[in-house]
Design goal:
By secondary structure, the chain is mainly beta. The protein is built from one helix and eight strands.
Length: 144
């Protein structure tokens, strides 16, 4: 089922790229500025691990995120799951979950995933995590 959904999304995305004149480029608008997150914990397992982080994330306020990575053969890439909650100044919360993929180059992990927010918006997110320096940047791009 997951493969079917990913394939359907990829076909939809590729069709819309050619239909709107982008040629070989896909352009997404940022929902807000880059969020530099503080890594609060890393929990390793035999098959991957979990990274937890928090920080100010634009429209989502003070955000708490959990990134769960599951390695595939070779250990330099795999699947990713995300869950996040943002406490906003007005007393409400934003929440979202998603799935995607990651790759690793040395100590730097690059994670890409699609996320559904509770308000119906959808994002394409990119996270860059350097395991050596503990730096983590989270960028959010508008899908819908």
């Amino acid at each position: 089922m997951k493969k079917l959904l990913v394939t359907a999304f990829a076909l939809w995305l590729s069709g819309s790229v050619f239909a709107d004149g982008h040629g070989n480029k896909i352009a997404f608008e940022k929902r807000h500025g880059s969020a530099e997150m503080e890594v609060t914990s890393v929990h390793l397992t035999e098959t991957g691990g979990t990274i937890m982080a928090e920080g100010q994330m634009g429209t989502y306020g003070r955000t708490y995120t959990t990134y769960t990575l599951t390695a595939i053969a070779g250990g330099t890439n795999g699947r990713a799951k995300i869950s996040g909650r943002g406490a906003m100044e007005d007393g409400s919360f934003a929440s979202g979950t998603g799935e995607g993929i990651y790759s690793r180059d040395g100590t730097v992990f690059t994670i890409h995933f699609l996320i559904n927010m509770q308000d119906g918006t959808q994002n394409l997110d990119e996270v860059i995590f350097n395991a050596f320096t503990r730096e983590l940047t989270h960028d959010v791009y508008i899908v819908r």
